[in-house]
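Box 3.1 A note on notation
Throughout this textbook, protein chains are presented in two layers. The first layer is the amino acid sequence; the second is a token string describing backbone geometry. Keep the layers aligned when reading.
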Amino acid sequence: MLSKKVQKRIRRHKRIRSTVSGTKEIPRVSVFKSNLGLYVQVIDDTNANTLFSISTKKFDGTKTEKSVKAAEELAKTVLDNGIKKIVFDRGGNKYIGRIKEFADALRKAGLEF
């Protein structure tokens, strides 16, 4: 049986995904958070295609520092491919800590959402 915390995250994620969807012009940035790091995908939901992905595993520093570095690298890749707007999917996680720092770093790098 899942813990109450996990059940709440799943419920939030279902609620978010009912309204959030990405296209080729405005893709969805999906974030999965584990105890060790973040795994992020840039997804075109209309074609069910993952455009880019990144993990914090290859970076050094604290978990938060790794998420900021990953966001900067992902934003550079996305902007180089001509995408300026995205839709942010936090995966049911609360908008605090690493998730917030990741989103703020994406905004600072020039992506709009």
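The helical segments are 4-17, 63-80, 97-109. The chain has a mean pLDDT of 96.
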